[in-house]
Every structure is written in C-alpha cells, then in structure tokens.
Amino acid sequence: MPTYKHILVPVDESPISYAAVENALALANELQATVTVMSVIAVDPFIGVDFYKVAPAVTDYFMKAEEAARLRLKEIEDLFIRDNIPVNTKIIHGVSPADGIISIADEVSADLIIMGSHGRTGFKKMMLGSVAQTVLTQSPIPVLIIKM
C-alpha cells in the first residue's frame, strides 16, 4: 500500500467539504502525513469587462468571499493543529476550481488529494460540471472522492 506524505484537501462552504476534512484528519493521523487545506476564489466570469471590474459591489463580493475562505480555512486548520497534524492553508484566485486544485497539488508536492463530491449525475452533471470529475481525470496523483 502506498504511503502518502502530503495530502491536499480542497474545501468550500459545503457540508461535503467537511466530510472530506474528517477523512483527511483520520488518514493524516494514521500516516503521519502533512496536510494542505485550500480554497479557490472562483474565476470572475466577466473578466475584461471594465465596468464590472470597478463596480464597488463586485469588489465587496470578492472581499467577502476572501474573508469567508480565510475564516473557513482557519477553523479547519485548528482541527489539524488540535490533533498535532502538520497543516498549511492556501487560497488561490483567478482560476477555475479544478485548475486551482491541480496547481496547488503540484506546488506543495501533494501525493494525494481528498475532496468531496456532490455526486451529481446525468443532466445536472452536464449542466453544472463537476470539479471532482475534472480533478479526477486531470490529476497526475491519486484522488480520493468523498461522497455524501
């Protein structure tokens, strides 16, 4: 069985992210692995539209998203610290969630990604896309998908 030394756990505000965190806690404790917990502040769909970039409401939205991500990561970081598991946190901006996850995995030399999936199928998956599916198919390292 492979021994994982560095686990990446991408999170958002969903309950499934916290299920992935719980699994990462258990596995990291068992394997004495380091963990990086990360969030992606999603790509701006109106990038390049001048009026959108300067709108105070948009700036406020991204500032609030950043603050929410920081608070979420701090809360999760404290769980790992409580269990004496080495942990780092990262926030990435300006990329799609899947690209951000794969990029950070490479940056921190992760050898396993543990992430949640909503388990959408059929038409919903086609319309909404699936971050987990994209990471699973594009990642050069193993990906453990936690489903609810």
Automatic annotation (TrEMBL):
Signal peptide: none
Principal cellular location given in the protein's record: cytoplasm
Gene3D superfamilies from the UniProt entry: HUPs
GO CC annotations, alphabetized: cytoplasm
Lipid biosynthesis recorded as keyword: no
UspA domain segment(s): 4-147
Transmembrane segments: none
InterPro entries, per database record: Rossmann-like_a/b/a_fold, Universal_stress_UspA, UspA
Superkingdom, natural source: Bacteria
Keywords: Cytoplasm
Subcellular location: Cytoplasm
UniProt cross-references to PANTHER family, sorted A to Z: STRESS RESPONSE PROTEIN NHAX (PTHR46268), UNIVERSAL STRESS PROTEIN HP_0031 (PTHR46268:SF15)
Family membership noted in the UniProt record: Belongs to the universal stress protein A family.
Protein name per UniProt: Universal stress protein
Native source species: Acinetobacter equi
Upper taxonomic lineage: Bacteria, Pseudomonadati, Pseudomonadota, Gammaproteobacteria, Moraxellales
